């Protein structure tokens, strides 16, 4: 009996479009290597920030990247692929920059069906006339995905970004599973985070719960049978930094650290027994004057101390 494995991967690919050379080649090789190493029959790869920060310029490069990955995996037996790329950045109210890629090994093609949300039924992959598909437009009109961008109502004061989710449903060897690609809100300001550690985490929680509620509503109206839900993507998880530092230092003692004097224009050399002979200190004119006064006073004290007539204890 053949043992079939399913591999779920997620990757934020924003940085691939900042460094288009070695970084992209390395990413392709590592993804391919991981898939070959695990030998899955079905691969789901969820991507976030397709096109990077400058997505208006780089969005067109996503199909090129995906096509290269398709070619590499096809040579390893993954002859069928379904790739859904949300790169229509001109659709501001819909654009999420999420991409969901699926690769099916030739040994499992007859076992896989994809759900059509509009027709409310599973479509066998073998019945499709396309072995390799890259869909880059009209995702919301496609029956094979449910995609939504988080509404401005989640956080009216927050800069409207590309966060949202993309949902696909599959049947593999008579088992149904739902895959949701998700990208939650990041921390907009570290200063605001220090003042209110739960400010951003609560918003992420609300968005995540919204996705789960949407799925429960959808799943409650289905008649296909029991499903297994997998949510994976970029959750933008952050530590509560203030609480984290407090916990780390709970058994330590406070120590006061004096800051160095401000950097000024005039410089002078100084030496000490604990430093090298060429250490350079930076002092301002007022500090130099105080230093000279201190040195003169010390010299006067030393001179008077070596004079027997200046001693308080005389024979």
From TrEMBL:
Disordered, as annotated region: 292-315
Inositol polyphosphate-related phosphatase domain residues: 2-309
Domain of life, per lineage: Eukaryota
Enzyme class, spelled out: hydrolase
Keyword Hydrolase found: yes
EC nos: 3.1.3.56
GO BP annotation list: phosphatidylinositol dephosphorylation
Protein name (database record): inositol-polyphosphate 5-phosphatase
